[in-house]
Amino acid sequence: MKKLIIINGPNINLLGKREPTIYGNISFSDYFETLEKQFPQLVLEQYQSNIEGELIDKIQEVGYSYDGIILNAAAYTHTSVGIGDAVKAIETPVIEVHISNTFGRETFRHQSFISGHAKGVILGFGLKSYALAIQSFED
Hints:
Layout: E1 2-8, H1 20-23, H2 28-38, E2 42-48, H3 52-62, E3 68-72, H4 81-89, E4 94-98, E5 120-123, H5 128-135
Parallel strand pairs: 1-2, 1-3, 3-4, 4-5
């Protein structure tokens, strides 16, 4: 069985409460249960931190043993050279995911320190962006 992990960055723990017009009204924990039911043939895990160094530590920890990482580094996408370097350093393929279309938002969100090192980027499909990323690992 393929083993995938979803790593979420800052404020993703507030899904369902935070700006529902952008991020929807369901918590990530509730959505994760839906993903587990939708993809029973995969081992799915999740991790979330608001702390940049903890996200880097998790990427390094799983970056040589998992079959895939789905990474929503949230605001750190646009500011963290360290997270980009961690993605570049590991062997496990990474799909960068964003719930909103970052190119339709503030200009600073158009920059990503992760995209150049990721296998692919999926954004703007709401929480479905995660399911689309998971599907990319089903081959």
